[in-house]
Amino acid sequence: MSEPARRPKVLFLCIYNSARSQMAEGLLRALFGDRYEACSAGASPAGLNAWAVKAMAEIGIDISDQYSKSVDVFAGGDFDYVVTVCGADQKCPAFRGEAKRLHWDIADPGEKAGVDTMASFRETRDDLKRRIERAFGAAGIRKLQAEKSKGKALG
Length: 155
What we know:
4 helices
């Protein structure tokens, strides 16, 4: 009897691993957990953001058991994809390894001035969901696999 195929591993990175990367981890797990293994980490872990938990709960995804982790925890990890989800004005953490990289320019929902906090987290959640569906859904995975076989950098 053969072993089941290994699911590709995806690591989402941001600065604090408190909101964006945590929501992305939960979304990938909920949408495509049968196809991918999802993880998240940050450069300066700051604890799980309660607004992120609430925004995800609104769409039926419970991330309350997730916790902030340092990118160092995954040093030397065997990831297929590393997705940075930092805003243009932020320095995303680096990850050394052979993984294909994607960068999604997403502002920190807790730092948007003049915007209702819950609305900001909902907007970020919905943006992440669209991006995950495009990148890791059926059409997206065919594109990623084609680019991977050509050795093309992902962006």
